[in-house]
Amino acid sequence: MLDICLVCRYLKAPACSIGEVARALxxxxxxxxxxxxxxxxDHSHSERNAHRLFNRYGLALKVPISELKVANDANEDFVTVxxxxxxxYIQVLLKQxxxxxxxxxxxxESQGLLRTxxxxxxxxxxKHIVFQHYDExxxxxxxxxxxxxxxxxxxxKSPIFVLSWEIPFGLPPELLSKASADSRGTASKQKGxxxxxxxxxxxxxxxxxxxxxxxxxTCTVSDPDAFNNTKPETCxxxxxxxxxxxxxxxxxxxxxxxxxxxxxxxxxSILQETATELDELFYTxxxxxxxxxxxxxxxxxxxxxxxxxxxxxxxxxHKTGVKxxxxxCPHCEAGKPGLSISDAASEPPWAATLGTTDPWExxxxxxxxxxAATFKAGLYKFDPFHVLKFGVFRDAVGSxxxxxxxxxxxxxxxxxxxxxxxxxxxxxxxxxLWCMASKKFPAIRQFSxxxxxxxxxxxxxxVNCKGSDVTLIMMFLEFFLRSLMLNPLKDPSxxxxxxxxxxxxxxxxxxxxxxxxxxxxxxxxxxxxxNAAPLxxxxxx
Length: 541
Known about the structure:
Elements: H1 2-10, H2 16-27, H3 33-38, H4 46-56, E1 66-71, E2 78-83, H5 86-96, H6 111-124, H7 130-133, E3 142-153, E4 159-166, H8 173-176, H9 183-189, H10 200-207, E5 249-256, H11 257-260, H12 266-283, E6 286-288, E7 291-302, H13 304-311, E8 380-382, H14 384-407, H15 420-438, H16 467-485, H17 495-516
Parallel strand pairs: 3-7, 7-8
Antiparallel strand pairs: 1-2, 3-4, 4-5, 6-7
């Protein structure tokens, strides 16, 4: 019966499908007691019956569902919001599956992992309350935690707000493969590209840009106390972007727009409740197997829209000035007169204003959780997906495609039309051919002026598609530009922009790969050959 549940989950099938699959198996004389029970899940109350079935056979985590009552704005009636308390969820995981919270390690072997994390985190944020309230003797039982918020779509494409929490530690391949539809694919994707252990100096030397001495800050690769090579295997820090989301993202609440539009206090109330729990988990903690684990709140991840709502910011992109310059960044005062928001220099003037003022009139709900006494807005962390795949990468893809069209690199015959629509069509045909050869399956159906948001050459294009498609288009463009560089270009003046576009896409793909990689401690950085041919995209396949 577990196989039926997994099939239905991976196909994202409704609950009634469990009964349909089970009845088909019973018909084929594959009957067991569990299959017989599963076959009773019919179309009437299918979700309720499916939940009962999962609980009966131990296929569900028994995390109690709590209810939060929020007073209605207009009258004394209450709106009841079901949610999962972090304390209840963590207690179940620590007792039944502690390795999920401890980087794949049992409780007895996790102290080194946690101490290593806090040693490194102190370099990044030494003002965090952890370093004022707890000494190093407690770090071995202090687990870092993030909160993540986002608004997505549910049935009928109606909006839904989802609040969850996560632990920053990734899991080893052998544990991830247990929740993977293709264990061989999961194992192969865990392999690094050989550059994950390069130092900052080696990366800058390979890029041909600034030297390490010209950069600010320090590199932990050369620090024997901070680098994996000098530490045991139980201290390895993996990113948590690999594997099934059930193993790294844990639900707090899912609230439909129909519910939160009834009462404007619902979202602040659930955030306040979460902050109260984080306070309790930090100061009191939970005792499991004789060890008291405490949890330290590191920030709230999400897109700019959710941050604006969760923090009630008075500085955001919603408040961009038309007639006069206004600050638009919650972290700094960029946008004010003399502090240009488009200044991307190494030391822009707005950098000096980071954390100097708070972007709200009243302290937001999540800021009641233990975090830091200074730079309180730093609690709101940028979500890499929205910043990269759903942000600057979409701009990069659109701009590169339009520039290549303008240069004529998608004109393959002398009589090919130079109209932008025709060039988009030929570019997409080339992209589809690359996808077929690479065994990739994009969801985007065409390149057009509409989905490129490109009406005239005076505008900057950006592609409107899924985040996964953005990555595929970037991989295609990196491959296409590399092939152009291996042959004479149409015009010698194209050399600089073509190489710049190639370097940008290659760096973006490698950066995203680095986030999702799990470097092996035995790998050593190799000296890059600057005279070698441009590297291909084979490491991504």
